[in-house]
Specification:
With about 100 residues, this protein is mostly helical. Helices cover about 70% and strands about 0% of the residues.
């Protein structure tokens, strides 16, 4: 009995693996969108930590503040790599051309 269903199950599993691979291939534009969105999330997290210190919601720590500021500065340089022609349309983005 097992032999009778093993081959069909193997074929279904293989086809599912192939189909997800084919349909999950990202275009350069989609990769750019995801890249810049990731950079913006990182910036938001680190900027938020600095803001909490400035507002007094979190104890001020000069070393931590400096590290967060350095990360924000680095992300500000990297995020521009995520703006390539065509990445402002047809993707999960609100970027303006």
């Amino acid at each position: 009995m097992f032999k009778k269903i093993a081959l069909p199950l193997t074929l279904v599993a293989a086809l599912l693996g192939i189909s997800t691979t084919v349909f999950s291939e990202d275009t350069p534009e989609q990769i750019a969108v995801e890249y810049r969105q990731g950079a913006f999330i990182i910036t938001k997290v680190h900027f938020g930590q600095m803001g909490a210190m400035v507002k007094g919601a979190k104890e001020f720590n000069a070393d931590e503040f400096k590290k967060n500021a350095q990360t924000v500065a680095a992300m500000s340089q990297l995020v521009m790599n995520g703006f390539i022609p065509g990445s402002d349309k047809g993707h999960d983005t609100t970027a303006k051309a």
